[in-house]
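Chain A, query sequence.
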Amino acid sequence: EELGEEKGFTVFPFGQGFGSMSPASKDFYQFVMEGRIRHGRHPVLDWNMANVIIDQDAAGNIKPNKKKSTEKIDGVVAMIMGFARAALGAGGTVESVYDERGLLIL
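Chain A, predicted structure.
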């Protein structure tokens, strides 16, 4: 069943080509390399991350390649798409309380 406005959700189209995926893929990569992605060592996301193969085009754009990746990478692709949407909603800048401190665990 598709989610949509009739179910109370706002749905945004998002392509999976270089044009749509590259800016957020680069941001996501930077966050990963800086250790800024924290997901509680979720085993499925760990597995997805281990499976990702990145493609680069002649213009230097990057995106995950589902066909070349060894296994499923859907969690990573969803996170990258979330990064893109968050950047649009924040006027192109993603700021968070987590930039100053880590996750609080109760």
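The first helix runs from residue 18 to 33. The chain is about 40% helix and 5% strand.
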